[in-house]
Amino acid sequence: MKINFSDLAKKYKDELLDNVIPFWEKHSVDKEYGGYFTCLDRAGNVYDTDKFIWLQGRQVWMFSSLYNNLEKNKRWLGMAEHGAHFLEKFGCDKDGNWYFSLNREGKPLIAPYNIFSDCFATMAFGQLSKATGNERYAEIAVNTFKNIIKRSENPKGKYTKSVAGTRPLKSFSVPMTLCNLSLEIEHLLEKNFVDETIDRCIHEVTEVFYDKESGLIRENVNPDGSFSDSFDGRLINPGHGLEAMWFVMDLALRNNDNNLMQKVTGMTLDILNYSWDKEYGGIYYFLDIKGKPVQQLEWDQKLWWVHIETLISLIKGYYHTKNPDCLKWFERVQEYTWSHYPDPQYGEWFGYLNRRGEVLLPLKGGKWKGCFHVPRGMYQISKILEKI
Q1: Using CA atoms, how far apart are residues 132 and 137, in angstroms rounded to an integer?
Q2: pLDDT digits over 69-102, tens only?
Q3: Nearest in space to 106 (alpha carbons), one of 90, 121, 120
Q4: How far is CA 50 from CA 28, 45, 161, 252, in A?
Q5: pLDDT digits (tens, 9 = 90+) for 242-261
Q6: pLDDT per residue over 43-55, tens digit each?
Q7: Measuring CA to CA, which residue among 161, 63, 183, 61 is closest to residue 114?
Q8: In which order are the strands placed within the sheet that holds 302-303?
Q9: How distant is the alpha carbon of residue 13 from its chain centre?
Q10: Helices (H) then strands (E): counts for the chain
């Protein structure tokens, strides 16, 4: 059956504007202490009041991005600034490192043990500075980004659990995140600095962490880029690899690099072919590059963000390369995604399914799920479908 791209674009946009965003507007705002509640049960009731900095940042970014790119809706800008004020007041220590979590009132709970809170604070204030023209927001974004670059060789610093020298590994999550982050705040940085960062990240993703023999992205490699035959070295996180592919597609578009676009489109299909559950459908959460058992007990769960990010990469790959396999896979992943994750009764989407596709946790938000992957995906996919 021929796809009606116009109708499909409307489906994604309507889901964003009529279902997903209203859910977070209605349920997540902490009017008393500021910031957002992210621990929301199926119906949107708050079941825990702790505030996770990376999810606070993601929600500030999401509403700022919608304001900048979709509609100058003052309500969205107000939502973004509501979270930003809380973050600016309580979110980081005196050295500018962003905590992992705070209690409801804004007192630190978990130290700034990695740079991912910093990454989403950068995105949040970078996008909000674009929306408001506020120089203070721009300064926070730039200073945080420079701190990320400084810490990127040892992201956890003194908080790392591993003993130095025995098995030093570097993680894919750093260059993957920087691929997206560098574009997010490109408007605030010097061109040469952005170009150098982007070139380095593209090389890391497509050469260092990419295993040419299997066609897969490794989650961890030795410092020289070689293979580590260990739990961590064999680990494949299909969602990370598939999400990173559309980040690099955006960079390929920026650089007008068709060869890179073709390469990462092929990589998308290779990762998906390996990680699709041929018995029950859906994409596995974790796998081993050699097919050995993995240490993550949740390895066979089917997560919302993995499928949404995959849809973005597939539709972008199809749009830019016209590879028919991208469209075939898009239809297949889309059918699984829309038949399993949306909640027609209470709105928003479920996040966690077991291998058979049954809902494991009916929550709509928590420590790891917030106002980010679903709305960002709905926006990104609808935008590409409209272009097609």
Answers
A1: 9
A2: 999 999 999 999 999 999 999 999 999 999 999 9
A3: 90
A4: 12, 14, 24, 39
A5: 999 999 999 999 999 999 99
A6: 999 999 999 999 9
A7: 161
A8: 302-303, 352-353, 359-361
A9: 19
A10: 14, 14
